[in-house]
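Entry: DUF4493 domain-containing protein
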Amino acid sequence: MKGILKFILFLEIVLLCSCVNDEKRSGAFGGMSLHLSANSSVTDVTTRSSEEVLPSIQDFSISVLQGDKVQASWDKLSDYDEDTTFPVGSYTLKAFYGDIEKEGFDSPYYEGTTDFNIRGGETTPVETTCKLANTKISIEYTDDFKQYFKTYSSTVQAELGSEVSFSSGETRAAYVKPGRISVKLTFTKVNGGLSPTTIEVATIEEALAQHHYHLQMNVDAGKAMLSIVFDRVTEVRPITLDISDKALNIKPPYFTLTGFEKTSNDGNQWDGNPIESNQLSALLTSLGGFTKCILRTTSPNLPDWPEEGFNLAALTPEDQALLDKSGVKLIGFGINQDQMGIINFTGLIPNLNITDNNDTHLFYLSATSTYGKQSEDYVLNITTPKNFMLLPTEPVKMKSKEVTIPVKLKEGNPQNIKLYYRYYGVMTLINNTVITPIEGKEGYYNIKASGIDMGVVAKDFQAEYNGLKSAIVSVAVIIPSYSVILEPFDVWSYTAEMTIIPEYAEDMSNVMSAIEAYISLNGSTWTKVDAKDLKLDVTTGKAVISGLTPGTTYYFRTTCDDGTTYSIPVMQATESVIQLPDFTQGWGKTIFSGTIN
């Protein structure tokens, strides 16, 4: 008996392997052949730097992605097996060398991507060229510069990147992230004091990848002026800074805060609470003027703000519009700037909501004077008021037309609360709401909203009270469980009749009103059944699919939540069309004459 069982198991394994191989041969899978190349060229009109030494193509890492999901990856191209197959579909090849996060000398990062399609039973050629994704920076000091300073060094830092230090004898180029790049100089004069001075000498606002920027620093000793000259590749104009003792002794820019309290003795961190203060603002003072005032945030409520922040001293019309929209008001910036400027955050407060139970929003401030001196970095923590908030609620049934959400309002008239929900991507006011107090909980209310359509996926809700917005609360939707039955005798040449059975009979109407059917020839690539080919009977739970091809094996599945979840696929074959013989063909006629006994 054991021998028989082993033999049966062996047959099952053989059949399974055979099915997998048949699937590959059937055209559900395909392969790719790779060809990578690297391009070390940079936009550079000078010949001062040596030619880039390319890494070996075989050392490049490769990944195959569908959307943002990595389907396969290899640490080195040399590890890739060209017999590897992928299901039919659209993919992206990403090839790279190095790490964009590793900034410094001898740290180039190359990257290339190519979109391609895998076709069944074919090998797709895929080519991509990897280019330098960093910005290169070189710094050169003239002889006059070297004689004027006793000690000197420079630092280069990309926005949100790491600081790279250039010693006085450094001649190599550094690799940093593209974007806004700041260059600082630290020095002591030959005839100056012992304490080093650090000033920001240059900013490249939009440094590009695959570009090499050369900076040359020079000093006019007679005028005590430092000049920074860029090569012709950039659009940055030459910069001249006053480095006289008088200029260097001027106090760096600083901020005076209203409505904030300092929370750290070893840093410049400040807390602002709009409940306790009717104004939150920052006054910038910079003797001699300022060339830069950076304001940025990590608040999820301000997604339109650029990650690198705004330079309030050089706002574009688009920047100004974003600040106006968010409620930030400025005085003393722009073309009329002098030595002071005010940033008023008070109008911003209604736009700061509690997100994922987090009621704090961080803002970062810094400034640079016309003499290159920098302020301290200020971290402002603004807290969203907690006396008004929308509270989590229980899930509702799919396609519900009403929902009840609790809200907390410690002070004020609850009838002034407005409720919104996200409808086709837009927060839409709900006109039909009834607000009643929750018994035994002072300051808590229920908002019953009707005349809405909860649909089949979770919906976002937000409350507003006198201009103050709550955090967004997502209300989940309960999707009824159901099963799909499709027996061989339910499938004919051109049609298939599925039976939908909900877990609870009362859910039949909801399920059947939202059912969508999908068919597939291979179990991986699915096609939605057109509405004209799908007939639904809410009473019996029958779902009849027409327009099928005779003698064909199909996979069937359904969804009632717009494709968030699917039923378990069912496989059945349609009947072949049988042609009956024509009985009028091949028959002769004989006249019988006689007697039949």
